[in-house]
Amino acid sequence: MRQRRTSGVRRPTIYRIVVRGELSHRYLSAFEGMTLAAGDGQTTISGPVVDQAQLYGLLDRVSDLGLELISVNPSPEPAARAAQTGR
Amino acid sequence: MGAAQGARTAQRQRQLRRPAAAVAAGLLAAKLAPPRSSLRQVPRPRLFDPLQAGTRQLLTLVSAPAGAGKTTLLAAWSSSRQPPGPVAWLSLDAGDNEVARFWSYTLAALCQSGAVPGDSALRALAPPAEPDKDFLSQLVSGLAALPSPVVLVLDDLHDITDATVFEGLEFLLRHAPPQLRLVLATRVDPPLPLQRLLVSGKLVQVRAADLAFTVAEAAELLSSVEDLSEEDLVLLQARTEGWAAGLRLAAMSLEGQPDPHQFVAELAGDDKSIGDYLTGEVLDRQPEDLRSFLLQTSIVDELDGDLADTLTGGHGGESMLARLERSNGFVVAVGSRRTSYRYHQLFADLLRYELRREAPGQVIRLHRRAADWYAARGETVHAIRQTLMAQDWRHAADLTAEHGPSLILRGHAATLHELVERLPADLVQADPELQLLGAADRIVRGDVEATAAQPPARSQPDRPPSRKRDRFALLRAVVRTMLAWQAGDLDQVRVDGAETLALQSRVGKDGEDDDARAVALFTVGTAELWTGHLASAEPHLREGIAAALQARLGSVHVACLSQLALLHAIRGELHEASRWGASVVEGAAEEDGSSPMQAAGGSLALAWVAYYRDDLGEATRYLDQAEATSAADFRPMTLMAAILRARVQRARGDLAGALSMVATAHRDLAGWRPPRSLWRWLVLTEAELRSTAGQAQPASAIRKRLDEDRPLSGGEAMVLARLQLAEGDPAGAAAALAPCLDGSAADGFLTIQAEMWLLDALAHDALADHDQAAVSLERALDLAVHGGLQRSFLDAGAPARSLLARYRQRLPTHWSYLDELLQVSAESAQVTVVAPKLIDHLTDREHTVLRYLPSLMTYEEIAADLYVSLNTVKTHAYGIFRKLGVTGRRQAVRSARELHLL
Prior knowledge:
The complex is a heterodimer of chains A (87) and B (902).
Chain A: E1 13-20, E2 35-39, E3 42-49, H1 52-64, E4 69-75
Antiparallel strand pairs in A: 1-3, 1-4, 2-3
Chain B: H1 2-16, H2 28-31, H3 45-56, E1 59-63, H4 70-78, E2 87-91, H5 99-112, H6 121-124, H7 133-144, E3 150-155, H8 163-175, E4 180-186, H9 194-199, E5 203-207, H10 208-211, H11 215-221, H12 230-240, H13 244-254, H14 260-268, H15 274-285, H16 288-297, H17 305-312, H18 317-327, E6 331-334, E7 340-343, H19 345-358, H20 360-376, H21 380-389, H22 393-409, H23 413-421, H24 425-429, H25 432-444, H26 448-452, H27 467-487, H28 490-507, H29 514-530, H30 534-550, H31 554-570, H32 574-590, H33 596-612, H34 616-629, H35 635-651, H36 655-668, H37 676-692, H38 699-705, H39 714-726, H40 730-741, H41 753-766, H42 770-787, H43 791-795, H44 797-807, H45 815-828, H46 844-852, H47 859-866, H48 870-884, H49 889-898
Parallel strand pairs in B: 1-4, 1-5, 2-3, 3-4
Antiparallel strand pairs in B: 6-7
Helix pairs in contact in B: 7-8, 12-14, 13-15, 16-17, 17-18, 17-20, 19-20, 20-21, 21-22, 22-23, 22-25, 22-27, 22-29, 23-25, 25-27, 27-28, 28-29, 29-30, 29-31, 30-31, 31-32, 31-33, 32-33, 33-34, 33-35, 34-35, 35-36, 35-37, 36-37, 37-39, 38-39, 39-40, 39-41, 40-41, 41-42, 44-45, 46-48, 47-48, 48-49
């Protein structure tokens, strides 16, 4: 777990943000650089997040769009294995 | 184009009438009124109940996600008859996340609500750059003095994150008087002690679950859709969970659906995200032209028909917007004239994302178009914002640098900071000009660290002058000017301001930056006026008036007029002073919320006019008015008002009162170093009063006190000449007056031509040069009759009366005015001058110490404050006791007060 804040080289962490409802590709542009995976009545927005500021930016967007937030988790997976866009 | 032209003219006219307090506010009108939709609203009386309950208390919190219907509910409630008092509305946005701006908007909202009477202290209150406890306490006491409750609605509070704003709100909540009923609408709970307020019964909440539409309400909302069964409604309500935005979108999707049941059934059986799905449905159902209109115009926050046409490259934008507003609630009209529109925030976000998805290439082009449109209208800040959104960094940086100095002058340094922050960091780091622009707000506020970070002046005389270098020099001059202004150092303002003006005309293109020039001219002219450089102040203020008219800056126009009126008053040019003064006072009365400093300037000028025309009652009335309106003090004017009040008191025969007035003025100088010439004016006023009171100090001693290196101004020489005449030295007086009369004396206050000639006449009469005396007296009368000046003749007392009587025969052209003067003078001689009784006159040092005696300071502390030894203070104190015939400090204070020495 190399997540030292002071580290000069910032390694993005993969985050998984789960919201309620199945989102279409329509919202992809709202979450630039992330991938959306929809299914089972919810959508997982996942992708690399550089720092907390970017994470809060994404969460603000969730709130701006009136989406219901279910969970936010950092994931140990590397970016390449992030889920594919659904639908 | 005709419509655009008309709109532009209308906008400019509105600007001209815009209250001064709102100069910095731009789109204030739209922020201070709840958005109103012409769509039929679903009445939701059940939600009015908690609002009623909440506004009987201190705080109502409406906290729910985007699209829950918070604003709509509050807007409907505000315009109902339910609120317990007038509603002050403020729609916040991310640009307001700055503590000074937050409070100045809040004040503007309160003042515009109808709850704040014209004489309320709130109208004169202005938040300092960093609002502190003092400001907040004044706000609280202003609210506590309101005659009735006021409901303050802060909408979209989630856009505010600045911790100092919330500290201020918490202070306000803790000290709130019963008049204040605060309503906060937000997507996130604010960092306020909500739990404590809830427990103490001072908080009522309306949350997402409360705002959710019931089936009955949903039915009402969807009543225009035909063929919906009760079952459909239940399904829809359940599927949207009563989310207002979802239901509104559903209503739009259902319009013209061939089979609504089918649509509802499909929607209900699906797991899609409601907002996402319905937006797609709604947009896909629009005709292509409307669809692209919606997408293209979504990139700006607020638009009118002209901007819409610019963005779409089409026409008919205005009617399109009006139709959208009436038909489906995509947009709401904002502002008092309702020709501007805003998309509902949630829709705007959805549309922008849709645009980015569909036509990413267009986004940048559209922002560029918007930027050009704003730039052509002179709305610099919007133009820069749009350029930033177009990611046109170089161009944005250029625009910022180009308009930076003018933005700082117009009080937008904080906005500038925000704009620079949004430029790429490496671009800013490579450019000292951008760095200075970004730090300007902190430098202007006197932030020492920021000032130290200011890039050093680089003099490179070997390099040819370039426009960019001039521009940088201008920026530095502007920052220094504003810094000096904030610090109250008018001498420095004059120097730096003059440099600003010179550089402005080198850098600026003709007519492009009239508003910045108007502000600079006002600043320089005002500094010149109060530092006694009247001759250069006059043309600058006159130019400022012209530039302000050109730029349609109503408030700056009035501000220049106000200073010009004072300038003429100071010179005894009563005709002009009364003309300008009256136009300021009338203008201020008409323009609700006009800056108190301006209004006070007009009243003060009129007070001088009345005084010189020997209408003492009128003078006092205007002085009271000036004092009442100038709670936001401009210290030079406060000092001038004190000097005038002392003179009015002397004219009434109350010498003791006049002297104590001057003593108070001296005391009020603590912590402020007034411009030298203003201070000299105060010293001379005191000397004249003492001379009348029979406590004359020799003219030579006064001259010494005035700091001998500096030449006397005409007016100063005149006062000394008067003292010399009283001392029986007419030759000295005539010699002192000579440079004033031939115009070679330095410029300054008190330079009243008529009075100088009168003194010259008195001097020559005493020297038995009767011909010269007659010539001089004639000049004095020529000048006096023009503006109706009488006071100078009355103040000169019996010698002037005798002079007028003896030379009457020689001056037949002035008989009528001369006779009037003689009569008034005879009446005024009846006023008995009451001089205080004192065993022996106090020395200046003793006066200084006397002023400390009423305080709680020990002798040691007084000594430290005066930088003298303890023994010196004690010696002076005992000197005071002896002269007052008392034995102790407390007795001395009482006795000094009786003698009006304190």
